[in-house]
Amino acid sequence: MSAFTIFLILIVIVAFLLVVVIMVQNPKGGGLSSSFGGGGNQQIGGVKQTGDFLDKSTWFLATALIVLILASNLTIGAGAGNESKALDTEETTEMPALPATESGSTSSEEQQAE
Predict the structure, then answer these.
(1) Where is the composition biased (Low complexity) (predicted)?
(2) What is the pTM of this model?
(3) Closest CA to 5 of 71, 93, 86
């Protein structure tokens, strides 16, 4: 398993976790923290900490995603299996020869020049 594959798997996991953390939050204050009684001024069971945890985890996962993407970019060229055959200039395909005409020339431009 190459380093790029490992980074790709980690990127997918972190992106999924980031989506889950963002979906748990509610921008109007009615997310996970409000379900524990944080709707009013009273705070039961550390509702403020739940909001802080979700906010910090969002920033951490977003930063981790960017770092993983940049690190995976460095490993793209290192893998031997990522070489493109389309860009190889060593192997050139030769054009088949045109059939000779009556005058012996092989191209129509030479025939028109005569």
Answers:
(1) 100-114
(2) 0.53
(3) 71
User: Residue 10: exposed, middle, or buried by beta-carbon count in 10 A (0-12, 13-18, 19+)?
Assistant: middle
Tell me the pLDDT tens digit for each residue of 82-92. Answer: 556 666 666 55
What does the CA dihedral 18, 21, 22, 25 come to, rounded to 10 degrees?
A: -170
DSSP H/E element including 112: helix 108-113
- Residues 26-85: tens digit of each pLDDT: 766 555 555 555 555 445 545 566 778 888 999 999 999 999 999 999 988 765 555 566
Q: With CA atoms as reference, report the closest residue to 32 among 2, 52, 8.
A: 52
